[in-house]
Design brief:
single chain; 6-stranded antiparallel sheet; globular
């Protein structure tokens, strides 16, 4: 997992070309960007979404096998839940078509604010979209193909 408040974005972009592509596209997005899927490059796309966060005690963690998630907040605020892997209990089997498995576990709360982002590689559980004082959130979830099952 990588977390950024924006201060080290140049370092991350220089280190990883896929991160660079995502961060460049993120500069073009804002709270007025229509919700939907946007293809960016081979193996990279973004889902822009607007939603009301859920209560942290309703956290459901997810893991992926083939895609990394770079979750970039465009407006609002939320917590990203980072589960205690040792206490994780799988609550749905892996769905290869959607590239997702769901888990229940206690989570530590990582605050995300406008222009903050967190990157989760395949196998790294995360519980997105948790309430942190904002009733409405606009987020871009960049999907980066890492592997192909």
């Amino acid at each position: 997992m990588i977390y950024s408040d924006g201060t080290n974005d140049k370092i991350y972009a220089e280190h990883d070309g896929a991160i660079a592509v995502c961060l460049k596209k993120a500069e073009e997005l804002n709270s007025d960007t229509p919700d939907g899927r946007y293809d960016i490059a081979d193996g990279i796309y973004v889902n822009v979404m607007t939603y009301s966060p859920k209560k942290p005690d309703e956290a459901t963690a997810e893991t992926h096998r083939d895609w990394a998630d770079l979750q970039y907040l465009l407006s609002g605020c939320e917590y990203m839940g980072v589960p205690d892997v040792a206490k994780a209990e799988q609550i749905s089997p892996y769905d290869a078509q959607r590239d997702i498995a769901l888990w229940r576990a206690p989570v530590a709360l990582l605050p995300l604010r406008e222009r903050n982002w967190a990157l989760f590689y395949p196998g790294e559980p995360h519980a997105p979209s948790l309430y942190n004082g904002c009733d409405k959130v606009k987020k871009a979830v960049f999907k980066i193909r890492i592997a192909k099952s």
